[in-house]
Amino acid sequence: MSDMNWSRRRFLAASLSGAIALCPSGGRAQGTVPAGADVLRVATTSWLLAEAMLSMGRVPVAMADTRNYRLNLPDPPLPEDVVNLGAVWEPNRELMASLSPDLILLPSEHRVNEGLLSRIAPTDRMPEPPSGLDRLAQVIWTWRWVGERLALMAAAEGALEDGFLALDRARDRLAGSDDRTLYLVDLDQGGQRVDVFGAPSLFHGVLTALGLGTAWSGPMEAYGWVSTGIEWLSHPDARIVYLDRGPSTQRSLARLRESTLWRSLPAVRAGRCLSIPSVFVWGGLSSAVRLADALADRLSQGQGEDQGGGAEHG
User: Fold this and answer.
1) pLDDT in tens, 185-197
2) Before 101, cis peptide (omega within 30)?
3) From CA 180, how far away is CA 133, in angstroms rounded?
4) Which of 100, 105, 107, 127 ranks highest by number of CB atoms within 10 Å?
5) Best CA proximity match to 56, nearest among 144, 182, 186, 177
6) Do 201 and 285 share a domain, yes or no?
């Protein structure tokens, strides 16, 4: 491999800078199940915690909003027999109680639900990740917290290692590409604005892992993307890479093709505008790998490029 497993070293360094400092007192469940027990029946309201469990070979007995989870996070697949608890913020407590889970895992932001759900089963709310971590480092931290809590540390490290290797392979596929600066965007249906992704989003972490740079140098929101007018996508040498969301993206492109401003952008004029399949920005390791593979596929092959303002559906 080129660059001697660069991405793996970067992620390990990021996660080690405080991310593995798992304080047992911050991760104890409210109830009788001790941390590290071999818990078999786990329910969760968090997509990210469910994704982590699935990557380690542990299927939750129940989780919130299974339908939209499957739409946004197809890999690893969620088995059909996982019970749908309803809305993420208002899970069906009666249904959860009827399932008699051994443990309920909550994300750090679900403080309101913690007390009520702890009456059903021992409940762990994940501590806040250490400050200063970008989304990708937070994902690594989360995988290790779940691995520790469910006595699956070997599986957690194995899942992370598989992800690191996949990102390394994607980086290697881009080794011969000269076009390394891009805007990664989501098109607005109005045809005048885009959401541009940057730090500290998962997408920015993947770009960095692949040795790609963002052309965006303007302000950025704390969550990692900002809405801006298309006129700001004006870097003379950058590509525009947009998420293909199907019909909504086609409506956006139809409006953009009518825009003189869009057609005048350097990337559009030069045929450096292309699509990649949509990836869930709040996803975890599988989303990072899916984005890396999509970028490597399109940037290394140059498929689907816009040759003069008629950006193709990818």
Assistant:
1) 999 988 899 999 9
2) no
3) 24
4) 105
5) 144
6) yes
Domain count, the chain: 2
Residue 23 lies in a domain: yes
In this structure, is residue 250 part of a structural domain?
yes
Report which secondary-structure segment, H or E, holds 203.
helix 202-209
**Between the CA of residue 180 and those of 49, 107, 152, 203, 213, what are the distances in Å?**
33, 35, 38, 15, 6
Asked if residue 87 is part of any domain, the answer here is: yes
Residue 29 is encoded by which pair of tokens? 């469940």
Examine the pLDDT at 77 and tell me if it is beyond 50. Answer: yes
Does residue 294 sit within a domain? yes
- Statement to judge: residues 17 and 162 lie in one domain: yes
Q: How confident is the model at residue 112 (pLDDT cuts 50, 70, 90)?
A: confident
What was the pLDDT predicted at 9? 57
Which structure tokens are listed for 83? 């019970």
**Among 15-24, 52-61, 132-141, 220-229, whose mean pLDDT is lowest?**
15-24
CA 123/CA 31 separation, integer angstroms: 7
The conformation of residue 2, written as its DSSP 8-state character, comes to G
State the amino acid at position 199 in one-letter form: A
Pair (72, 42) in one structural domain: yes
pLDDT for the residue numbered 71? 95
Domain encompassing residue 202: 178-301
Q: Strand, coil or helix: what is 188? A: coil
Cβ-contact 65, 50 below 8 angstroms: no
Residue 246 sits at the vertex; the CA angle it makes with 139 and 223, to the nearest 5 degrees, is 30
Q: What is the CATH number of the domain that holds 130?
A: 3.40.50.1980
Cα angle, residue 179 at apex, residues 173 and 180 outer, rounded to 5°: 75
Tell me the C-alpha to C-alpha distance, in Å, between residue 300 and each of 115, 168, 295: 51, 15, 8
